[in-house]
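Repro:
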Amino acid sequence: MPFRRLFPALVLAAAACTPIPPRFAPGVPVHWVASPNFDLRRPQYVILHHTTNDTAAQALATLTNPERMVSAHYLVGRDGTVYQLVDERYRAWHAGASRWGADSDINSASIGIELDNNGHEPYPQAQLDALLALLADLKSRHDIPRENFLGHGDVAPGRKVDPGALFPWKLLAERGFGMWCDAPSGTLPLDASDPGLRRGDQDLLSRVGYDATNPDAAIRAFNRHFMALEDEPALSPEGRAILECLAAATKEPSK
């Protein structure tokens, strides 16, 4: 699928070849001697957003406005048009204050994708088809682990909710983008007043990757992603079973 790019690759290539102007420390000239021994950043996450706008044109106006100081690497329109706004090698300003596991600078380690959606509508098939094609390309080129395809609401619980409860996370997981567990049958009722159970929920949420310092916000984010519940601060028996399944499937964090 061809991706429509707002900034031609030729411009980026020319910029990459432009000599870096000499810098000066206070009173001391600094001489530029290029070394080939460096790496460009390698994205480890893909973070999905919705724009809250009614049209792609509105979203593009926001994402390219210097005064708004917000951007993303890609925008996927309702009609399936894919726009690229920031080179993948560079840090876009899309996640803000966010955390997943031990990573607290998500912008520096991620590719941000905005979805043309006002936050209260289903995602059309043409948009999902384009998104899946884009995710497959990103996953292949950057070797991004399936568990690192996340929503803005996952990495910023209590602050952000996108891409919302209507986003089809199960469909993405079936294609290899994101984790998923189905609730087993015969789940038992919970005693929500049990403080030990409450602490256990925090531990499980942290194990999956959520910032559980605010348990209510983390549970709301979990319910939005895995239970399609927009603003539910409590775990159902099915929800806790799914959380336990996800925690069991999550790799141990590196020490």
